[in-house]
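Listing S7. Sequence submitted for prediction.
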Amino acid sequence: MAGGNAALREYGLGAERGEDRLLTLQAMAEVRLLRHDYAAARELYAGLIRDAPEIPKLWNEYGVVLHQLGEAEAAIGAYTRALELAADYALARNNLAVTFAHQGRHDEAGAVLHEALRTAPQLAVPRLNLGLRLGQQRRHQLALQVCRKVLA
């Protein structure tokens, strides 16, 4: 991914020239995450949450990295921390539900998805995940209704 390399170079130059360190490192971590370079992303996010433990977005993205690395319990802890900092953070709640589902904790996943939809009904991702979950449970009519709401 040539664009990712260019972006990382530019962020590095920005950091050298005195740009906001936290924002620069966060951008670099996001590029690493998008490039599936999870080990590098993990290192960057771990440093970021040490420096700015009060930012829920960092905890959420750290959770994504941990989940991708197969560290589900650590990911759950990161998502939980994000939600402690921002109870209405629906994307973190969605990611928590996905991790629960991957662990086979389907009842917990469903409850968390419903809570994500309650806090952010306009957000499509939890609704799509709920539709997928219902389809996996062979509740096809209900899954179809949920997915139609996304399309509407």
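Caption to Listing S7: primary sequence and predicted structure tokens for the chain studied. The chain is about 80% helix and 0% strand. The mean pLDDT is 89.
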